[in-house]
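User: Predict the structure for this protein chain, please.
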Amino acid sequence: MRIGEVWIPNRIVLAPMAGITDKAFRLIARAHGCGLVYTEMVSAKALTYRNQKTRSLLDLAGEQPPIAVQLFGSEPEVMAEGASIAVQAGADIVDVNMGCPVPKIVKNGEGSALLADPGKACRIVRAIADAVNVPVTVKMRIGWDRSNIVAADLAKRLEESGASAIAVHGRTREQYYSGKADWDAIREVKKAVTVPVIGNGDIWVPADAARMLEETGCDAVMLGRGVLGNPWLVSNTLRFLNGEEPVLVGEEQKIRAAIRHLDLAVELKGEQAAVLEMRKHLAWYLKGLPHTAHLKDSIFKAKTRAEIVRLFEEYLRQPKARYGR
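Assistant: Here is the predicted structure, written as structure tokens:
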């Protein structure tokens, strides 16, 4: 698949997720074979103000391309300037967030709010496309609510404004992450545009990805919450699409992967920050394993890498009944 002039080696894409898809997570997804990864969403305005914390989100050094930087904002000129900064940092693709449902984003006319202002949405895409020499893409929801499904019409206008691909989360803003994703709406977007369409929503197992590709005709699938603590969803989906059997992941394999993720985060962010930020990831790795409630409680109280590793090693050594819950 090509997005503009950027070659995407397969049909598996990692969704941009705030507080999740940092450098460590992207490196892990790429190691599992992900064809395209996105940064966390980045404030274009904060970039233009040279905010150092925001600028750190654009640390792409040492990562294998292609990498998309996702920006959020509501002012075309500011978004264009932010896009130029992202490209200078190494972005292969600049993505515009038109899907974030969080109130503090929406109230500023950003994220999902742009679904209700198609004129501004198109001006933002046009401004970025005129400012940078890399493809501009959009990640959007299907509409504000069920009474206002705008995805197909808006996607067509965004393509005319310069968008080189459209990623569609099959939920409305009103749904947040509840209910069922509307794959029919994704199919309608695919019919409406000529650029690649990436389908997103309710992909939990490899067979879901295959079914989305078949039912919607989309060009690629975007994995989101299904990869939390489960990067094997990437590699197993690739295997499944290639006609191979997915690999079963055992208890020790999950624990060792969690420790490797922690170590990578410590290397990139320092121990104190990494331990705090990794707690949620470590709990996700434990999902589905027996008798982990006590272990999770202990991890959320741990302050050092050594404490966490000791807890994991103890869990692997001791009879699970010791953990009680």
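The chain has 14 helices and eleven strands.
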